[in-house]
Amino acid sequence: MSPASPSPASATCPRPRRRDTRPPARWAPAPPRIRAPGTGTPSHGGFLYYGVLELLQGAARAHDIVGIDLVEVAPGYDPTGSTAILAAQVLLNFPGFIFHARASG
Predict the structure, then answer these.
(1) Which residues lie closer than 8 Å to 42 by C-beta, 6 or more apart?
(2) Backbone phi, then psi, for 43, in 5-degree steps?
(3) To the nearest 10°, the Cα dihedral for 56, 89, 67, 79?
(4) φ/ψ (deg, to 5) at 38
(5) Burial grade of 36 (CB within 10 A; 0-12, 13-18, 19 or more)
(6) Terminal CA-CA length for the chain
(7) N or C: which end of the chain has fewer CB within 10 A?
(8) Res. 103 pLDDT band, cuts 50 70 90
């Protein structure tokens, strides 16, 4: 075996998950007002849906997530209902990311 190649033991053992002891972050990925008019605090530019999913996937892989709080969705300001749909999709996808990250180790 060459010195540059990994040993068989290190190739099969998953890297232990890092335990994050910091307090939970207060972070709100605000979508652009044109895509989600029913947000409480509009943000110029904002995140796109798939960008938010990538951020949440990364957070689920890097940290032990124990809760989620979706705030500032105001369906009364959105006659199309698109904000509520985006919020529901995020709430349905994020637990899946968390469980997938825990299962893969």
Answers:
(1) 30, 33
(2) -125, 125
(3) 120
(4) -95, 30
(5) buried
(6) 27
(7) N
(8) very high
**24-37 residue pLDDT tens:** 554 555 565 557 78
Average pLDDT, the chain: 75
Q: How remote is the C-alpha of 55 from its chain's centroid?
A: 5
In angstroms, the CA 63 to CA 58 distance is: 8
- 26-73 confidence digits (pLDDT tens): 455 556 555 778 887 766 777 788 888 999 999 999 998 888 888 888
Q: How many C-beta atoms lie closer than 10 Å to residue 60's C-beta?
A: 19
pLDDT of 95: 93
Token pair in block for residue 97: 């990311």
